[in-house]
Design brief:
The chain contains one helix and 44 strands. The chain is an all-beta fold.
Length: 767
């Protein structure tokens, strides 16, 4: 490491030490309530949203709530009462959300997992492991719609991809709204013992002139955890010890139409194609779940939101949407993203075991991936892609040991390629990638925590130079390390991060597009909380970041001051300035200065959200290695003309002007303009049925004279789809859909590329 790097680390460490010794003002925070005894249900409960069953009269009552935003643990603007009880099969939650102005309740019908902060809802966080680090999150709105997730306190991630079986019903009332939840105990994971102790945290979202947050426990400003504030539930005795079984077979059918004589010609329908598969879950105990899948259907019923990929330095990340990877997702949530399940593109079968033994939690996944898609080939200043033209056997496992409020973990992944290689000295080199190493969280207090991870990889590339030049059977061994200290306080927040990735490190089961660097990032934030006016939180900050090669060669260096603001109507906005940022592109170091920002606001019940992002100033042409002037402007919004209809729009426009030199330096102009527009219209007939239409248009205009390699002057596409869905639960579904894809010809005319009609039926059998 060169002296400059050591100097930066020393200066940052000295500055943070000074800040750590500065006085930090903190208001007195009320204590979390005492343990709450939950009695068994005194009778039958019908989940209809009415709270009129006699059993609710003997239920435990949770009625002390705190306004945690924008106020600081004060009495809420509206009263909330939560009732809790259980029987031999289910855990029940009753909710009475009082409202002084019921006419202002925002209660649209929405799809599953689409309940967000623009509308009234209540979220129940259940920490059934009682480790105060992660929880199952179950939301309900005044229409009885559902959203479920896993919340991870150590990272602050709220993962909406998991789905759980639970029933909800709700209704609007003269004094607000009421709701009921029936949560099968088989959907939850808890240790087998005579009496279980759980944790619960309830969050009511109350959007009016502000987006008010009411919590059932006080949440200190600057706290680095939420689930740690859960109130303890006791009295849970005689809970079932497992034995639950779910089998969910599915059948799909599709008919594909393709051009008969090339793009733009008449479409010709191919023979109909049918497929079938099976998902099975068995819980031999309440703390252990086994998942089996055979030929799973990983089709994405809703396509990814389009992103412009014309001028990017590294691969674009897309979130996971597929339902198979349900259990134990928080165990794969580590500082280095060594597990990214979308790398498993076409599994033939899969098996997973997830459970908890004492203070240890684990998950182990094995599957056979039939290939397809692309493999990221990482580098220090950019990444490449190679076709995954072979099948593989994949393993991913995680073990985590609780140590009070901290933990120690171990992560292992392995991808063994099945053939597909050429013969070398009479042997076929198929290749493999194996990664292993520990990770940890040390939570000293609610203000300070340290996280870290160290991984070692062993790789033998496939012997397929026809797919990628460096895939020649070579052996690679290297490491990746991450260490971070986070301090969160009412007035001051800072984060110090250091990373070290060897140039031969590979994580083919993860999302690691950059290797061969050492990096440091130091961020300091100052928090202000105005008591009146438009703003509720003002946060100026500064970020210093450097990235260099292992021998000290500059890759990136930047100093970015900025400010973030939160305010009325859930307003969030911020501006950041990049001052003379230096960035290596190929063999040269380029410099740029620009400004970027964002904004979002929830204006009201009908125009529920609008926002956008922008970047203006210097922009780097990564493909040709030069600096130009450009920008990126994106807008998004949601309009709800009625409580049944929602219109979502997204638009993004990028452009870049360059000087390409040439005769007399006169060859200059617009390198490219790219824009993408997407409109989604959803009509929700009820909490179970909806019709959705999506249209997405991409248009790219380029000037081939300004490129150093051939490019088309015009390219683009259009994707349209229609889907009708009926869902009793997340595995009992009926989907009927139609898709139409078109591509631009050199004249900019959209020509039909294919069309697809499909149907899917799945039913969950439970015992």
């Amino acid at each position: 490491m060169r002296t400059s790097t050591r100097t930066l680390i020393g200066i940052a460490g000295f500055a943070l030490t000074l800040l750590a010794t500065a006085p930090v003002r903190g208001d007195e925070v009320p204590p979390v309530g005492p343990p709450l005894v939950v009695p068994r249900a005194a009778g039958r409960i019908v989940v209809d949203g009415r709270l009129d069953d006699a059993a609710w009269q003997q239920a435990a009552v949770l009625d002390t709530f705190y306004e945690t935003y924008p106020a600081d643990n004060t009495e809420p603007k509206a009263k909330t009462v939560v009732y809790l009880t259980y029987d031999e099969h289910d855990f029940y939650v009753g909710i009475h959300a009082f409202d002084p102005e019921p006419g202002k309740i925002r209660a649209p019908f929405v799809e599953r997992d689409k309940i967000i902060g623009t509308d009234d809802n209540v979220a129940v966080f259940l920490d059934t492991r009682n480790d105060r680090r992660s929880a199952v999150e179950l939301r309900v709105n005044p229409r009885g719609n559902q959203t479920d997730a896993v919340y991870n306190d150590s990272s602050g991630n709220e993962d909406l991809s998991p789905d759980f079986f639970y029933d909800t019903a709700a209704q609007l009332t003269a004094d607000g709204w009421t709701a009921e939840m029936r949560i099968p105990l088989s959907s939850l994971r808890y240790p087998k013992q005579a009496e279980n102790h759980w944790g619960i945290l309830v969050w009511r979202n109350y959007p009016r002139d502000q987006r008010y947050a009411f919590h059932s426990s006080p949440i200190a400003r600057g706290s680095n955890c939420w689930i740690c504030q859960s109130r303890e539930l006791t009295g849970l005795t005689g809970l079932p010890g497992g034995g639950h079984f779910v089998g969910a077979p599915y059948v799909t059918g599709q008919r594909l139409g393709v051009p008969r004589n090339g793009l733009g010609s008449t479409l010709e329908d191919r023979s109909p194609k049918a497929d079938a598969g099976l998902d099975v879950k068995w819980t031999p105990s309440a703390s252990n779940a086994l998942d089996l899948t055979i030929n799973p259907d990983f089709s994405q019923v809703e396509s990814d939101v389009g992103q412009i990929a014309v001028n990017n330095q590294f691969a674009i990340f897309f979130p996971e949407k597929r339902p198979f990877f349900l259990e134990g997702l928080d165990l794969f949530d580590t500082p280095i993203q060594a597990v990214y399940t979308r790398t498993i593109t076409d599994p033939k079968w899969g098996l997973r075991d997830t459970g908890k033994l004492g203070d240890s939690s684990y998950t182990l996944l094995v599957t056979q991936d039939q290939g397809g898609g692309s493999v990221i080939i990482p580098g220090p200043t950019g990444n490449g892609f190679a076709p995954q033209d072979f099948s593989s056997k994949v393993l991913a496992g995680s073990l985590r040991r609780d140590l009070g409020a901290s933990y120690l973990g171990l992560l292992v992944t392995d991808r063994e390629n099945d053939g597909g290689g050429h013969q070398v000295a009479g042997h076929q080199i198929a290749g493999h990638n194996r990664v292993a190493g520990p990770d940890f969280l040390w939570r000293q207090s609610e203000a300070d925590q340290v996280t870290g991870q160290l991984l070692v990889s062993d790789t033998q590339t496939p012997n397929r130079p026809d797919l990628f030049p460096t895939w020649d059977g070579r052996q690679l061994t290297s490491h990746a390390g991450h260490l971070e200290w986070l301090h969160t306080g009412r007035d001051w927040t800072w984060r110090a991060t250091v990373q070290d990735f060897g140039e031969d490190f590979r994580a083919d089961e993860g999302f690691v597009p950059q290797v061969g660097f050492r990096a440091g990032r130091y961020a300091l934030f100052r928090n202000y909380y105005p008591q009146s006016g438009l703003f509720r939180r003002v946060q100026p900050y500064a970020v210093v970041r450097y990235i260099e090669s292992p021998d000290g060669e500059l890759i990136r260096r930047q100093t970015n001051p900025g400010i973030q603001i939160q305010g009325q109507h859930n307003m969030a906005t911020g501006v950041e300035v990049a001052v003379r940022e230096r960035l290596r592109v190929g063999n040269q170091v380029l410099e740029r200065s620009n400004v970027n920002g964002y904004f979002q606001i929830d204006p009201g019940r009908r125009f529920s959200r609008v926002g956008g992002n922008f970047t203006l100033g210097d922009s780097i042409d990564f493909a040709n290695g030069r600096v130009g002037q450009g920008g990126d402007l994106s807008l998004f919004g949601t309009l709800k003309p009625t409580d049944h209809l929602a219109l979502d729009f997204n638009a993004d426009r990028q452009w870049l002007d360059v000087n390409a030199g040439g005769s007399g330096g006169r060859l200059k102009g617009r390198l490219f303009t790219a824009q993408i527009e997407r409109l989604k219209a959803t009509y929700n007939f009820s909490a179970r049925a909806f019709l959705r239409l999506i249209g997405e248009y991409l248009d790219v205009n380029s000037d081939p004279r300004l490129y150093t390699f051939p490019v088309p002057a015009r390219s683009g596409s259009f994707a349209g789809s229609a889907l009708f869905a009926y869902q009793l639960n997340w595995q009992t579904v009926l989907f009927v859909g139609y898709a139409d894809d078109r591509l631009q010809n050199p004249l900019g005319v959209l020509q039909r590329a294919d069309r697809l009609v499909f149907v899917k039926v799945s039913y969950a059998f439970q015992r």
